[in-house]
Design a protein that fits this description.
Rossmann fold; 43% helix; 12 helices; 434 Repressor (Amino-terminal Domain); alpha/beta; 4-stranded parallel sheet; 3 domains; 5-stranded parallel sheet; elongated
C-alpha cells in the first residue's frame, strides 16, 4: 500500500496543503485550534507519517546530532556515545553515528554527510594526528568544518582542536587533561614501585592523545627523580598492545637467571621489576593477554597500568590500575556545548574535564 500524502490529508480535512503542512510540520504560523484538530484527525485516520526533512525546514532545525568516532566497538568511544545519546535525549534530538577508524579524510566525508542532512550539531571524538599521511585529510576536514559552521552548524571536538581548523563561531573544544593526569600516574607509580624500571607502550608518533600521555608520564618520572621510560610504539588498540606485550614477555623471560640473562626480571626474579604503562586501557588489556600467553603473570612477573578506566575493566583480572576519565560525562559536555547549554562561563567555554589516578591490583607487589 502506498503511503498517504500531505495532499490527501489536506483534502480529507478540507484545507489547503500549505495549511496542513503548517500544522503537521511544526511551523510557527499555525491556523486556529479547530482547523489544527481537523488536520490531525485526518492525518491519524490516513496513517500519515510526517516528513522529517519538511519539519526541519519549517522549524529551521532538523533535530539531528552527528557523532563521529573512531570505533564504536571500542569501550572508550561507546561510553562517550552513551553520554552523547543521553544529552541528545534531553534536547529532544536524535543521534546519527559515523565510525571512521581515525582517518581525517573519512571524518571529512562524515561531516559532509551530516551537513547535507542539516544536522544541528556535530560531535567529533577521537585523537587528532599530525602524521604526514594525515596532512591532506586534516586540511580537507578543517575546510569542511569551516563550511559547516559558516552555514550555522555547531561543532564540539573532544580532546584537541582539528588540525588547521580556523573557525571560531560555533566551534567548541572539550579539553581532556591527558598530560597532567599521566604525570600524576607516573608520580604515584614511582612512589609505589620504587625499585622498578618503567616502559611505555604508546601509539604511533604524531597521535596527539598518545603523545600527550607519553609526555606527561615522562614528566612525572622526571619530577620523581626517575630516568625516562623506554617507549615501544604500536597501533593504538588492543592488537598493538598485544604485539608490544609479546616483545616485553620475551625480554622478561630472557632476563631470568635460568635463561642466563641479567637485568629486569619482573617481580619474581630477584632483581628489578618491570612496570608497564600502556597509554590506553585496551592496549593494556592486549599487553596483559600477551604476557599471559607466554606463561607470565601480573603482578608477579610484571606490573601494568592503563588510561581511561573503560567499563570493560570491571571484569578484568587482576584489577587494572588506570586513570579514570568520566567518559559519559565528556559525551554529555560535548553535546551540550554544541547546543550552547554547557558553558562554564560567559564566553561559552565548556566546563573542565577532571580525572583521577586509580591504583589497583595490577601494580601491587605480588604476594
Amino acid at each position: 500500500m502506498a503511503a498517504s500524502t500531505l495532499t490527501e490529508v489536506a483534502r480529507l480535512a478540507g484545507v489547503s496543503p500549505a495549511t496542513a503542512s503548517r500544522v503537521l510540520n511544526g511551523s510557527a504560523r499555525k491556523p486556529g485550534p479547530d482547523i489544527a484538530d481537523r488536520v490531525r484527525q485526518a492525518a491519524d485516520s490516513l496513517g500519515y507519517i510526517p516528513n522529517a526533512q519538511a519539519q526541519g525546514l519549517a522549524k529551521s532545525s532538523s533535530g539531528l546530532i552527528g557523532l563521529i568516532v573512531h570505533d564504536i566497538a571500542d569501550p572508550y568511544f561507546a561510553a562517550i556515545a552513551r553520554g552523547v545519546q543521553e544529552a541528545a535525549r534531553e534536547q529532544g534530538r536524535m543521534v546519527l553515528l559515523a565510525t571512521t577508524a581515525g582517518a581525517p579524510g573519512d571524518e571529512k566525508e562524515a561531516v559532509a554527510a551530516f551537513a547535507a542532512r542539516r544536522a544541528d550539531s556535530i560531535v567529533i571524538a577521537g585523537s587528532r594526528s599530525s602524521r604526514t599521511e594525515d596532512t591532506d585529510g586534516n586540511a580537507d576536514l578543517a575546510a569542511e568544518l569551516d563550511r559547516y559552521c559558516r552555514n550555522g552548524g555547531q561543532v564540539a571536538v573532544v580532546g584537541h582542536p582539528v588540525v588547521g581548523a580556523a573557525v571560531s563561531d560555533g566551534y567548541h573544544v572539550v579539553e581532556v587533561p591527558n598530560e597532567e593526569l599521566a604525570a600524576s600516574l607516573a608520580s604515584e607509580l614511582s612512589a609505589s614501585r620504587a625499585d622498578d624500571d618503567f616502559v611505555i607502550i604508546g601509539g604511533p608518533e604524531g597521535l596527539f592523545t598518545s603523545d600527550d600521555r607519553i609526555r606527561g608520564f615522562q614528566q612525572g618520572l622526571a619530577e620523581a627523580g626517575r630516568p625516562p621510560a623506554e617507549i615501544l610504539r604500536s597501533s593504538f588498540n588492543r592488537a598493538g598492545g598485544f604485539g608490544a606485550g609479546l616483545t616485553l614477555a620475551a625480554r622478561i623471560k630472557a632476563s631470568r637467571p635460568e635463561a642466563g640473562g641479567v637485568g629486569a626480571t619482573g617481580n619474581g626474579g630477584g632483581s628489578k621489576g618491570l612496570c608497564i604503562f600502556a597509554v590506553n586501557d585496551v592496549m593494556a588489556i592486549g599487553a596483559a593477554a600477551a604476557l599471559r600467553s607466554e606463561g607470565l603473570r601480573i603482578p608477579r612477573d610484571a606490573t601494568i597500568a592503563g588510561f581511561d578506566d573503560i567499563e570493560t575493566l570491571r571484569d578484568f583480572r587482576p584489577a587494572l590500575s588506570t586513570v579514570h576519565l568520566p567518559l559519559e560525562e565528556i559525551g554529555r559536555i560535548a553535546t551540550r556545548s554544541a547546543a550552547g547549554t554547557a558553558a562554564a562561563d560567559g564566553a561559552g567555554t565548556p566546563p573542565p574535564v577532571t580525572g583521577q589516578v586509580t591504583l589497583r591490583r595490577s601494580t601491587e607487589t605480588a604476594s
